């Protein structure tokens, strides 16, 4: 039921059948599963640009170290950094995937891409991986903490192991890599740029992905804290909160049935999902000298989803026609006149 209120209390909508249309104002659960055509078609105004926005050779002579670099966003960021001249080390636990990704990237960029097996949850494994990177490519001055673990589940059904595994990869993994490479950069008196990957639901919390929300929130605090403490060593720290970008790995864990994301376009003001290359372009900016005056920043890149969801009346942009707005305006105007008449009579 929908009720509209004025200063004089609830207004009856029975006299206004066009307004009293719950299917227009409030979608049913079935309707939410289908993307609104108007939302989808507006995306033609906001077509993604997938090519690098920086000149070739921007990162020539630089070494980048990217966790979770074998697939998804990690592979996308590695691809763009390599195309712009960087030597890149990509690390994860799956060495075969890493080797395939490294071959694909290097065959296109003609720059060296080093696959390294590493479990970021282990400080010893991280130490060995960083040492291998230094031996082959050199000391990395670009570090992207992208490794993550997440899946959708009711919190009441999560085991301690599930909690620990997600916290270990996201939070402990970020800390292990950052502290190890950070100490080496400080000892070498070498500056560097660190980029951590987060999510927009750290701002609001999120049901059914509670361990991830907790871990990512801690990563953001870690980012801002070191931005203050380690600036004296020439080290910068920033963070990206990407919205929904379709990657096979993340989608398989968060929407294995394909049910939830299908209707999500209705909640994206720009009418489309993000592209890996769009995140990669932002990442390249944040680890480049073009952003040398930026540190401690948390940047949301989500197609406007968070802001749109936060506004109480934002959903009305597609659910109320011009005729209905005119009726509402007249209704409010008439009620205001009635109220003023009552005041005058009193």
Question: How would you portray this structure in words?
Answer:
This protein is α/β, with parallel strands linked by helices. The chain has two domains: 4-26 and 322-345, no CATH class; 44-310, Rossmann fold. It is 45% helix and 13% strand. Strand 7, helix 8 (210-229) and strand 8 (235-242) form a beta-alpha-beta unit. Helix 4 runs parallel beside helix 5 (95-109). The two termini are 35 Å apart. This is 2,4-dienoyl-CoA reductase, mitochondrial. Keywords: Oxidoreductase. One of its GO terms (molecular function) is 2,4-dienoyl-CoA reductase (NADPH) activity. It holds the Pfam family adh_short_C2.
- Uncertain spans: 1-32
Tally of helical segments: 13
CATH third-level topology of the largest domain: Rossmann fold
Relative helix content: 40-55%
Spatial order of the strands forming the largest sheet: 5-4-3-6-7-8-9
Structural class: alpha/beta
How does the major sheet shape up?
Answer: 7 strands, parallel
| End-to-end C-alpha gap | 35 Å
Radius of gyration: 25 Å
Content of β-strand: 5-15%
Mean pLDDT reading: 85
CATH class descriptor name of the largest domain = Alpha Beta
Overall number of strands: 9
Q: Which architecture of the largest domain per CATH? A: 3-Layer(aba) Sandwich
| General shape | elongated
| CATH homologous superfamily assignment of the largest domain | NAD(P)-binding Rossmann-like Domain
Count of structural domains: 2
> What is the succession of H and E elements?
EEHHHEHEHEHEHEHEHHHEHH
Keywords: Oxidoreductase
GO biological process, one term: fatty acid beta-oxidation
Protein name: 2,4-dienoyl-CoA reductase, mitochondrial
Pfam family, one: adh_short_C2
């Amino acid at each position: 039921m929908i009720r509209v209120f004025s200063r004089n209390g609830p207004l009856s909508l029975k006299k206004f059948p066009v307004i009293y249309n719950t299917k227009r104002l409030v979608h049913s659960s079935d309707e939410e599963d289908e993307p609104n055509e108007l939302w989808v078609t507006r995306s033609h105004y906001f077509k993604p640009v997938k090519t690098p926005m920086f000149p070739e050779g921007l990162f020539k002579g630089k070494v980048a170290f990217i966790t979770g670099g074998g697939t998804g966003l990690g592979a996308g960021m590695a691809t763009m950094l390599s195309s712009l001249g960087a030597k890149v080390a990509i690390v994860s636990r799956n060495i075969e995937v890493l080797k395939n990704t490294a071959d694909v990237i290097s065959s296109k960029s003609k720059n060296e891409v080093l696959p390294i097996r590493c479990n970021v949850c282990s400080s010893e494994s991280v130490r060995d991986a960083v040492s291998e990177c230094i031996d082959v490519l050199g000391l990395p001055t670009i570090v992207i903490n992208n490794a993550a673990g997440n899946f959708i589940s009711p919190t009441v059904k999560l085991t301690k192991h599930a909690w620990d595994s997600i916290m270990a990869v996201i939070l402990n993994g970020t800390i292990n890599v950052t502290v190890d490479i950070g100490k080496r950069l400080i000892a070498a008196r070498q500056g560097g740029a660190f980029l951590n990957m987060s999510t927009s639901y750290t701002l609001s919390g999120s049901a059914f992905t509670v361990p991830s929300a907790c871990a990512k929130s801690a990563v953001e605090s870690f980012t801002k804290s070191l931005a203050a403490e380690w600036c004296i060593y020439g080290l910068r720290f920033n963070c990206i909160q990407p919205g929904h970008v379709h990657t096979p790995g993340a989608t398989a864990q968060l929407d294995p049935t394909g049910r939830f994301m299908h209707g999500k376009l209705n909640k994206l003001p720009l009418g489309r999902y993000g592209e890996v290359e769009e995140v990669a372009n932002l990442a390249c900016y944040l680890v480049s000298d073009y952003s040398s005056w930026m540190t401690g920043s948390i940047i949301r890149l989500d197609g406007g989803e968070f802001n749109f969801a936060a506004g109480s009346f934002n959903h009305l942009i597609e659910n109320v026609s011009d005729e209905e707005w005119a009726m509402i305006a007249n209704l409010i105007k008439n009620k205001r006149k009635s109220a003023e008449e009552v005041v005058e009579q009193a």
